[in-house]
Amino acid sequence: MALSDLKTDGTELVVLSVLAQEPQYGYAISKHVAALSDGAWSIGAGQLYPLLSKLEKSKLVSASWDEVKADPDDSGGGRRRKWYRLTAKGKQRLQQRIEAHRKATAVLERFIGGADVAGGAA
Amino acid sequence: MALSDLKTDGTELVVLSVLAQEPQYGYAISKHVAALSDGAWSIGAGQLYPLLSKLEKSKLVSASWDEVKADPDDSGGGRRRKWYRLTAKGKQRLQQRIEAHRKATAVLERFIGGADVAGGAA
DNA sequence: GTCGATATATCTGAATACGATATATCTATG
DNA sequence: CATAGATATATCGTATTCAGATATATCGAC
């Protein structure tokens, strides 16, 4: 496993978690991540869209375009948003990721615990 | 921060933690990691030695060769081993990494907590 | 009508991971 | 003695991944 669980795409875990609460479009996901992490984390467009595309291909999320026509008089079409929602398969994957993360964190605590002489925690 | 703290070199954190307990040589570190993680994790030579070299250059660890002569009486000795020990700077770095990891884990729980509807909790 | 925010998407240079490879010593077995 | 496997350190090469830069287009504010 080569320590992979410590980093097995934290971005994927976060995005799946966000989508587990409600369907979102890409830009909103990135804003949501920044907000919920108090600005500590950010997902750039260069990571988000390839990831969403990958998730869609592997059937973990389903996607559909929402054509927003704000007003019938509006000559233009409207801003296009692509909405993503978790599939049943995606929910399974999310639970797997959560379990793997918690297990990896527990193992890591064995290492950290023995070394954390200044932190105070036992 | 781009979600980096979730994975900011878990290998480095683990290696520093191992060295925080007592000086070790490379091969022993890799065996120790496998043992303490119940075989869940492994650090290949291709990752370990470049990492140790990097840590040494940045003064987080100090290293010295243990030249054991091929003494017939000295069973188990005679092979060249390079011993690594944490420097004061390395201990500081380790504490920083531990804090960053715990903080990142706490933030991640905000995301996971809202999504973990099927897990043991709920 | 220009600027910044919204919105999706790809490209690219840099860093990293991990297995494979190389060298050499020690131990166990035939 | 020969051979193989474990110990021990170290580099290489390919593949993946990152994160910023770039591209396109709409919308609201001034």
- What characterizes the major β-sheet of chain A? 3 strands, antiparallel
The helix/strand order of chain A is HEHHEEH
Structural class of the helix and strand makeup of chain A?
Answer: alpha+beta
- Total helical elements of chain A: 4
Helix share of residues of chain A?
Answer: 40-55%
Beta-strand residue percentage of chain A: 5-15%
Mean pLDDT across all amino acids of chain A: 84
**How widely separated are the two ends of chain A?**
27 Å
Identify low-pLDDT runs of chain A. 69-77
Radius of gyration of chain A: 19 Å
Strand order of the largest sheet of chain A: 1-3-2
Shape of chain A: globular
Largest interface: A-B, 45 and 44 residues
Oligomer: homodimer
| Count of beta strands of chain A | 3
Descriptive overview:
The structure is a homodimer of 122-residue chains. Chain A has 122 residues and is an alpha+beta fold. Chain A contains 4 helices and 3 strands. Chain A has helices at residues 10-21, 26-36, 45-57, 88-115, and strands at residues 24-25, 61-67, 80-86. A 3-stranded antiparallel beta sheet of chain A has the order 1-3-2. Chain A is globular and about 55 Å long. In chain A, 30% of the residues are buried. The A-B interface holds A 1-3, 5-7, 10-11, 13-14, 16-18, 20-21, 33, 36-38, 40-44, 47, 91, 94-95, 98-99, 101, 103-105, 107-108, 110-112, 114-119 and B 1-3, 5-7, 10-11, 13-14, 16-18, 20-21, 33, 36-38, 40-44, 47, 91, 94-95, 98-99, 101, 103, 105, 107-108, 110-112, 114-119. The structure holds a DNA duplex (30 and 30 nucleotides).
